[in-house]
Write a structure and sequence with these properties.
Homodimer. The protein is about 40% helix and about 15% strand. The chain is of the alpha/beta class. It binds 5,10-Methenyltetrahydrofolate. The site of 5,10-Methenyltetrahydrofolate has 19 residues, from α2, β4 and α10.
Length: about 290
């Protein structure tokens, strides 16, 4: 028996189609064009590819988008000024600062994310939106975890009453994933680098989410037969893109599994588009 492969392409296409329909209504009935600004600092090649993909996805469905490229040598103050002007810009409903920031600016990350107007925070990284998520207000949810939840929902995979295990506790994936699964009545365990007996805990999962950033970390022995395995990892190994799950091994045990590439990564961008439209609706008090 082999696992059902949860291909991101079809799910992402569906989300984009729904989002485009909302955009068309906003334009036709309210004369509003949703706008996204993506700030990229420095020359990280992977970031440049992601940002170009986001820009293209916006154009495809009718979101106005601006890419603001700043040199790595830019000071924190210049970046904060740029964010302040985007906060005031009526054409812009979503603001995203691509991570990781250059090393020289890493210490300022919290201050920079804090400077984004929470109403325009389409990454869901601002402390106000993080706090809202913890109390069940899911207005602007980080795109990757939101994409994982959307995929489970669209695939008809039930969550309530299930054992869910999240491997990884980052602010952008692991922690929001915990809150989202808990809000849908899963029993959620979060594992991390200091967890003892991680394999035994992972093996209890009906839904296993791997977000550790270590290539092929999840092996067959860590997966309960029939489990749903969601691979959030994006790692480069020998020039190839691989996830956190040893796909070839695990697909023979799992009930369903997301591939890398071609899995939840594709939903990340789709959810960014959806968040931008949500932000535009809220800012203009539509719906
Ligand atoms: N402020 C901020 N927000 C982010 O959401 C953000 C970020 N910074 N920094 C980097 C990570 C990573 N990320 C991905 C987006 C799309 C794919 C994606 O489309 N993946 C495809 C193709 C990947 C490829 O071929 O390179 C796939 O998995 O099939 C992956 C990863 C967003 N991130």
């Amino acid at each position: 028996m082999s696992a059902q492969i949860l291909a991101g392409k079809n799910f992402a296409a569906q989300i984009k189609e729904n989002t485009k329909r909302d955009i068309d209504v906003l334009k036709r009935d309210y004369d509003i064009i949703p706008g996204l600004a993506v700030i990229i600092v420095g020359e990280n090649p992977a970031s440049q590819v992601y940002v170009a993909n986001k820009h293209r996805a916006c154009a495809e469905i009718g979101i106005y988008s601006e890419v603001i490229h700043m040199p790595a040598s830019i000071g924190k103050d210049a970046l904060l000024d740029k964010i302040a002007s985007l906060n005031e810009n009526d054409k812009i409903h979503g603001i995203l600062v691509q991570l990781p920031l250059p090393d020289a600016m890493k210490a300022d990350e919290a201050e920079i994310l804090n400077a984004i107007d929470p109403a325009k925070d389409v990454d869901g990284f601002h402390p106000v939106n993080v706090g809202k998520l913890t109390i069940g207000d899911e207005h602007l949810v980080p795109c990757t975890p939101a994409g994982c939840m959307k995929m489970l929902e669209m695939a008809g995979i039930g969550i309530a009453g299930k054992q869910a295990v999240v491997i990884g506790r980052s602010n952008i994936v692991g922690k929001p994933m915990f809150h989202l699964l808990l809000a849908r009545n899963a029993t959620v365990t979060v594992c991390h680098s200091r967890t003892g007996n991680l394999a035994a805990i992972a093996r209890q999962a009906d839904i296993l989410v791997a977000a550790v950033g270590k290539p092929n970390f999840v092996t067959k022995d860590m997966v309960k037969p029939g489990a749903v395995v969601i691979d959030v990892g994006i790692n480069r190994l020998d020039g190839k893109l691989v996830g956190d799950v040893d796909f070839e091994q695990v697909k023979s045990v799992a009930g369903a599994i997301t591939p890398v590439p071609g899995g939840v990564g594709l939903l990340t961008i789709a959810m960014l588009l959806s968040n931008t439209v949500k932000a535009a609706c809220l800012i203009h008090q539509v719906n």
